[in-house]
Amino acid sequence: MRALRHLAHIRSHSPGTQPLLRRAGFTLIELIAVMAIIMILAVALLPRVNAAFENAQVTACQANLRKIGEGLVQYHGIKDRWPRDPGVGFIAAIVAEGIWEDTETSTKTLSCPAVESEYLTPSMDGIPLGDWYTDRTRVDGSWSAYAGRDTRNFPLRKFPASGKKILVSDDNDPEGNHRLMTNVLFGDWAVRGIDVFEEREEGRADEEQEFVIVGPDARREDLRALTLD
Q1: pTM for the whole thing?
Q2: CB 164 within 8 A of CB 222
């Protein structure tokens, strides 16, 4: 045994013997394989990432509508009436009549977070955040991506309104704020989403529709009480 160890020692230190070198890095084939795996995972996860982002926008929009409901309660407590202007003017009154300050926070609350502000009319016209809703005469649906109560044709006669009446919703014009869900603020201050799949089952939406129509052309009767004007 001692002789074998001695022989091994001599071989390991002999001039003609080269020690094994460890290979560093990856081969081209290994790199391609790793990149392919990453691409497969990215393709598989992308729909989930998009769905998570969409859900976050829906949740943020619902939070906005709840705050708008609080603003309408404050408005009625001070003015002892509902806002008189229809459409976006219905919610713009919260700022225009001094219930909320005309700040960037107010602007963002009265605008659907799913629609980037740069594509809304005030931003394209160079009107700074915080000045969007101070003048209701220039306000329409292109300002906030929300539709408000049509107070001319569907006035609210009591406060609070019935839980069956809709006060504000996503306007879904022209492509939809949220692809499959329309958020709605009801007269009892509840905020709920109307799913286009459920509307299809009820016969109130066509198969190719990806959002629920609001306003005078709506298939749902309660959504006809809203306007974009």
Answers
A1: 0.78
A2: yes
